[in-house]
Amino acid sequence: MSSSSSSSTSSCSSSTDTNDSTQTLIPGLPNDLSSLIISFIPYSHHSRLKPVSKSWKSFLSSKTLISLRHNHLKSSHLLCIFPQDPSLSPPYLFDLQHLSWCPLPPMPCNPHAYGLSNFISISLGHHIYVLGGSLFDTRSFPIDRPSPSSSIFRLNICNSSWDRLSPMISPRGSFACATNPKLGQILVAGGGSRHAMFGAAGSRMNSVECYDVEKDEWIALDGLPRFRAGCVGFLVGDGDEMEFWVMGGYGESRTVSGVFPVDEYYRDGVVLELKNGGKWREIGEMWEEGERRRLGNVVVVDGENGELPGVFMLDGTDIFR
């Protein structure tokens, strides 16, 4: 599941990027006013409105639309829901302003791979990225074992089109991931080959990479202090003080009665100072022995006016901060 906020599209120009200003959107009205009116229409109706005219199709597929929604709507956020294996089941976009759903095209399908799970979906600008995951590949042996994926796909919210990008250096699923909108970067850390169909089976890794959106390339960063999969990641700070936090996850496993593998979960976290290719430092444990076994889903809400971000953990019906 990924949330896409048009607040992250502040780099979009206020002028129409793909819409020819000589084309009339609504006869009798200035294009600036017409653009504002059309921007209030829910996304669920856009596919039916694009055939109205070339000018409507151009405007409804432009970044200007997202910029206008951000500037003039009280709640301009979008929520994109990805089911298991989005190459087979299409994702859905939920418009929080109009409480409406609309389906998006499924991710490009690989005829040899199936059952994708433990991938990461994350938003950056007017795009949503689907990274890695674990899947089954008919070309691998044995075929009943999951394989990590290095594939990266990008969904353009403006025109609902998919692109395949440069793959990660190391294939991985169940990893920590965060975006740096100001620098146009995506960071990934840890992960492995675990699949939802299996318990503690699968590999673990400690490699860390950074993706440059502009260059479409990955570079390797200093690896985690130890193997860590099933972890969560987020950025803290601003400018030169930016840090990449990776928390929780599992690294080792033990067996019950010598047969059933069980994950050994970490209670601590590690932090990477991004300035000048910094090193990792370990931070204290999140809870005492016996309090918890693992992290729930973690959501990070950016702080305003210089405030620190709020980190929330969702675990069943409980919410922790």
Automatic annotation (TrEMBL):
Residues 27-64 form the F-box domain. Residues 1-22 have a biased composition (Low complexity). It holds the Pfam family Kelch_1. This is Kelch repeat type 1. Residues 1-24 are annotated as: Disordered. InterPro entries: F-box-like_dom_sf, F-box_dom, Kelch-typ_b-propeller, Kelch_1.
